[in-house]
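Morning F.,

Quick status update on the modeling queue. The single chain you submitted on Monday has been processed. Sequence for confirmation:
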Amino acid sequence: MRAGNRYIHTVLELEGNMKRITLITTLLSVLLIGSAFGLTREDGSKYWLGKGFRLGLSHANLHGTDAGETLWRTGLNFGGVLRLELDRTSSLQLEVLYSRKGTHDFFWVDRNLVEGDLTLDYVEVPILWVITVPTRSNLTPNFLLGLAPGFITSSKFRSSMSDTSTETDVFGLQPYDLGLALGGGLTSQVGAGKVLLEIRYTFSMSTFDGATSHSDFRNGVISLNTGYLF
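Structure tokens below.
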């Protein structure tokens, strides 16, 4: 029992530390982007600050030691983007996104096949470091890595059997989910702005189960997005 309590205390302490790290990183990113307005580089050129949007499809599932094998579910993600180009090869990108996560599965209840759908809606604030590979063409590849803190806004479970279906709210989940995001894509100059095409994988760094048992259920999302910066 004492070992279990120590485990729960360690998990809670780790989550508290991650929240503080995320808050500090977000504030520093906002300050850096805000301070770039009107500033110039040594060669006299201004820092380019792109503002725009991104939208796409997400394929979500669960992972973790208690998640088992479940099916992927498809949802939408969209939001706003700020990208500050520090030089020709590196940028800092700050986003505010709506992202739908969860999972989809089938299971048996009293010899009846039941379809279950867990839907978790988050508002995410990814903070990303973008590395650009300069090329002679209009298409430039880039790679990204960063934190993706999320705040849950809705959690529902829908079960369907034969001609009946039931939807209930899911309680006892962590209100905060810190993820790690990595991916890559292509950027193309179109007029005064840039078109983005990107694939990204975001996975939770800790469980979203808020019960005292802290079962290990974590989000994992593969997203394919397009966007525009101007």
